[in-house]
Amino acid sequence: MTVRPDPTTTNQSAEHRHEPEAQTHRYDRPTPTARAFLEAVMHDRSTPLHLRIAAADTLLRIFGPDAWPDPPAADAPVRLTYQIGGIKPQ
């Protein structure tokens, strides 16, 4: 097998090559805990969905569902009412 050089880069000097910039993520920063890292991956919208789901799955398996506060109860006081103009209330 013969490896041929890439014609788009062989004729360019080093100063004219355009290297793609490394993409940074919130989870690239040093984090104090594994939980903080997995939560950052789970909430990063630029991360592929299957990786976000895997991070959420791992969080639940390690820490369990009781590690997060319960969602508000159905009878909790309403904090916000959003009214859309043109629709009559029932």
Task: Write structural notes for this entry.
The protein starts with 6 loop residues before the first helix and ends in a 27-residue tail after the last helix. It has helices at residues 7-10, 34-43, 49-63. The protein is flat. Helix 2 runs antiparallel to helix 3. The chain contains three helices and no strands. It is an all-alpha fold. It is 32% helix and 0% strand.
Which SSEs are present, and which pair or pack?
Blueprint: H1 7-10, H2 34-43, H3 49-63
Overall pLDDT level: 76
How much helix is in the residues? Answer: 25-40%
* N→C terminal distance: 74 Å
Low-confidence stretches: none
Q: What's this model, at a glance?
A:
This protein is mostly helical.
